[in-house]
């Protein structure tokens, strides 16, 4: 129950809730003010400009948000002018819908913020196409839309000025909470009754979330000059906390061994329940840190895990006497990792002490700019994607054709006074991936039905207009809060607030609900059919690109390990860049696999092999992280040739796997040499070195398995689909 309360509190302290409040105020206030002055249509037009500009106000550095809103204001104003002119003739309006739908959808090549600006332009287009304006009203209309954008921009900049660190605190807090969830999943691997396949699926899914949150924090922290220059204690605390959080995440990832063997050997002893419980406790404490960061609260509780760690150590030592023929070294390694995680938590907590944060500010001198991506806005990028080989081009053409079809359909078969809802549904439902479009279709229909029932109940049971307005505020704020995180809930909240709004405008009742539901169902049907038949983009055709990215990242990561085993000093920046690349590429591949899993079965190719490929690459990077983190902790130390041989073979396997996907790939030449000749066998090694040898051999074996899986996946991609094969015969 406490965790449920904490999750609810975390929601109200989140960036999404803050943004929801700001958007609600920005969109609703102009309409209310001008309605009070007897100029409701003027207020609605200004609110439309504010609504469009708010789409560009997505999470990120303040300067990016500001620039995005400035561009969005101009786009919305220009689109408003063009639309009220183009609507004078159905053909010109249809042409505008086709051209702008294509161009704005192509803006995906410039990143998420540009995509949202394009959606804002389409939103203004659709909501302006039924406005009957005379020619002398065209210029004022566009200026009012522009004025709404200016109003929202000033409101947004004011909140940043008052609370400059809140977006970074909220983003970092949410990232810490997701890493805590990742750690909690890792605890499940040590439960004797664990289903490893299910645990891996949960782990892969959570890895995507953590990667997205880490990227969001990097964007906010390392592209905000005020923070990255560490001019204040708050800035230092945020930067140092994130740097240590990424190291902590690596340490969590490094708690990876042959779980099946561990469960078989130590499951009956009860020691695994102790390990799982201790890891859960660490996850709880990490969750407390995340909530304190998100809510901007001081951490008053400093946990001491020393007693529990000593108890676990004593239990492992006792097993040495009970299991004389079974080595407990792997359990001791797990204990060392858990102890390191506990120390990382203590370090993060110490940054809440201003003196400690100040002292820590000089301990990390990473070049932060290397850890964030830089968007290319060259027109050349747009032009290079104007080919059927580009998935963005095919998607943009699909959106343009389907939007034009929806517009023509509503012109020939008009239904109700708000037929533009069909076009609005199509534009916002269509996504590049089939699985996401299918999911959005179901969620849109369900959300509209449930929200319609809620809206009708409020309108018929609550007759007081003040109470209805309070419900409108509640639903509106809720919609803008959850629109980025829960689509079905956002639709459920949006529908009643729109029904109440139309009721205030004199158009409420069952008829508007019926029209809304029918238009939504028609729009969803059009979008779903288009994703299947109009230039479809099946994920099985794209998975090879993501697989290659993961293999190259792991090969680079393996090269860092090879340098360390050869006795070379591992450069911190080089190592952390390689680590970040592995995390990002692995998350991209996992997301691609999830999208493929939602596609029709007959469109999937070797989905089981792809899943095994995802898991094996995760296991490989975890083992590399495990070994590298130990090398960093013990310092540079050269190992004899038998230790390096499995790494060389693993590199060859990954290189061959990449060449299966990209024959032109040129592998980097190995730069390490063994420090001295050594015997081919290693009979006199210490227990520590024997475990290292086993880990390196396991890395070699996993790499060989990855090579075999890559060959199978590549062969499946080259094989024609059943229908195509039959046609060829």
Secondary structure topology:
Blueprint (H helix, E strand, L loop, with lengths): L1 H12 L1 H22 L3 H16 L6 H25 L3 H17 L5 H17 L9 H25 L3 H23 L7 H27 L2 H4 L4 H22 L4 H8 L4 H25 L10 H17 L6 H22 L3 H7 L18 H6 L6 H22 L7 H10 L4 H28 L3 H18 L4 H18 L5 H24 L9 H23 L6 H26 L9 H28 L6 H21 L25 H32 L3 H7 L1
Helix pairs in contact: 2-3, 2-7, 2-21, 3-4, 3-6, 3-7, 4-5, 4-6, 4-7, 5-6, 5-18, 6-19, 8-9, 8-11, 8-13, 9-11, 9-25, 11-15, 11-16, 11-26, 13-14, 13-15, 14-15, 18-19, 19-23, 20-22, 20-23, 21-22, 24-25, 24-26, 24-27, 25-26, 26-28, 27-28
Amino- and carboxy-terminal Cα gap: 63 Å
- Mean pLDDT across all amino acids: 83
Overall number of domains: 4
- Radius of gyration over all CA atoms, rounded: 28 Å
Helix/strand order: HHHHHHHHHHHHHHHHHHHHHHHHHHHHH
Strand portion: under 5%
Low-confidence stretches: 357-366, 671-680, 721-729
Q: Report the sheet with the most strands, covering strand number, pairing sense and barrel closure.
A: none
Percent helix, as a range, is: over 70%
Task: Please write the CATH class name of the largest domain.
Answer: Mainly Alpha
- Helix count? 29
Coarse shape:
globular
What is the name of the CATH topology of the largest domain?
Methane Monooxygenase Hydroxylase, Chain G, domain 1
């Amino acid at each position: 129950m406490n965790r449920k309360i904490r999750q609810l509190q975390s929601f109200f302290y989140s960036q999404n809730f803050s943004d929801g409040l700001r958007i609600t105020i920005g969109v609703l206030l102009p309409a209310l003010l001008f309605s009070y002055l007897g100029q409701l249509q003027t207020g609605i037009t200004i609110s439309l400009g504010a609504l469009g500009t708010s789409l560009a106000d997505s999470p990120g550095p303040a300067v990016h948000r500001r620039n995005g809103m400035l561009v969005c204001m101009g786009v919305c104003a220009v689109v408003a002018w063009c639309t009220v002119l183009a609507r004078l003739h159905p053909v010109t309006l249809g042409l505008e819908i086709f051209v702008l739908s294509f161009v704005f959808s192509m803006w995906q090549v410039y990143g998420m913020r540009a995509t949202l600006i394009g959606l804002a332009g389409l939103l203004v287009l659709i909501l302006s196409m039924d406005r009957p304006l005379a020619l002398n009203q065209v210029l004022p209309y566009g200026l009012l839309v522009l004025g709404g954008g200016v109003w929202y921009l000033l409101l947004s900049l004011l909140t940043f000025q008052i609370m400059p660190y809140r977006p970074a605190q909220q983003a970092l807090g949410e990232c810490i909470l997701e890493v805590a969830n990742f750690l909690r999943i890792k605890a499940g691997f040590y439960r004797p009754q664990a289903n490893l396949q299910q645990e891996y699926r949960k782990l892969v899914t959570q890895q995507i979330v953590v990667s997205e949150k880490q990227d969001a924090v990097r964007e906010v922290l390392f592209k905000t000059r005020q923070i990255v220059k560490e001019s204040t204690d708050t800035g230092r605390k945020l930067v140092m906390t994130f740097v240590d959080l990424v190291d902590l995440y690596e340490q969590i990832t490094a708690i990876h061994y042959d779980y099946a063997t561990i469960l078989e050997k130590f499951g009956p002893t009860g020691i695994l329940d102790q390990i799982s419980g201790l890891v859960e406790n660490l996850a709880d404490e990490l969750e407390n840190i995340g909530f304190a960061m998100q809510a901007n609260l001081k951490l008053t509780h400093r946990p001491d895990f020393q007693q529990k760690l000593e108890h676990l150590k004593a239990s492992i030592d006792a097993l040495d006497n009970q299991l004389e023929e079974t080595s407990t070294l792997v359990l001791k390694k797990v204990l060392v990792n858990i102890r390191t995680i506990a120390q990382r938590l203590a370090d993060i907590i110490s940054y809440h002490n201003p003196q400690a944060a100040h002292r820590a500010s000089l301990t990390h001198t990473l070049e932060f700019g290397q850890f964030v991506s830089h968007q290319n806005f060259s027109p050349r990028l747009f032009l290079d994607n104007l080919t059927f080989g580009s998935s963005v081009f095919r998607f943009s053409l699909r959106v343009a054709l389907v939007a034009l079809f929806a517009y023509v359909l509503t012109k020939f078969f008009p239904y109700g006074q708000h037929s533009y809802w069909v076009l609005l549904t199509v534009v916002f439902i269509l996504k590049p991936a089939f699985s996401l479009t299918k999911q959005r279709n179901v969620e849109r229909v369900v959300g509209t039905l449930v929200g319609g029932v809620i809206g009708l109940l409020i309108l018929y049971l609550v007759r007081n207009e003040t109470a209805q307005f309070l419900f409108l505020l509640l639903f509106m704020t809720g919609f803008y809060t959850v629109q980025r995180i829960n689509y079905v809930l956002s639709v459920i909240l949006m529908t009643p607030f729109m029904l109440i709004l139309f009721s205030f405008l004199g158009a409420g009742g069952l008829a508007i609900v019926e029209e809304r539901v029918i238009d939504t169902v028609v729009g969803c049907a059009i979008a779903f059919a288009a994703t299947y038949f109009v230039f479809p983009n099946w994920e099985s055709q794209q998975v090879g690109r993501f697989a290659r990215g993961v293999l190259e990242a792991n090969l680079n990561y393996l090269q860092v390990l090879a340098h360390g085993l050869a006795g070379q000093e591992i450069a911190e920046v080089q190592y952390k860049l390689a680590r970040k690349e592995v995390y990002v590429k692995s998350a991209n591949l996992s997301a691609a696999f999830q999208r493929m899993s939602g596609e029709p079965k007959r469109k999937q190719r070797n989905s089981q092999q792809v899943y095994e490929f995802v898991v094996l690459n995760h296991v490989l990077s975890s083992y590399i992280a495990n070994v590298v983190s130990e090398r960093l902790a013990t310092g540079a130390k050269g190992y004899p040739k038998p230790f390096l041989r499995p790494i060389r073979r693993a590199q060859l396997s990954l290189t061959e796997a990449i060449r299966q996907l990209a024959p032109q790939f040129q592998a980097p030449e190995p730069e390490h040499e063994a420090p001295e000749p050594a015997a081919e066998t290693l009979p006199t090694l210490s227990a520590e070195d024997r475990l290292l040898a086993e880990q390196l051999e396991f890395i070699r074996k996993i790499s060989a398995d990855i090579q075999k899986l890559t060959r199978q996946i590549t062969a499946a991609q080259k094989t024609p689909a059943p229908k195509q094969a039959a046609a060829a015969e």
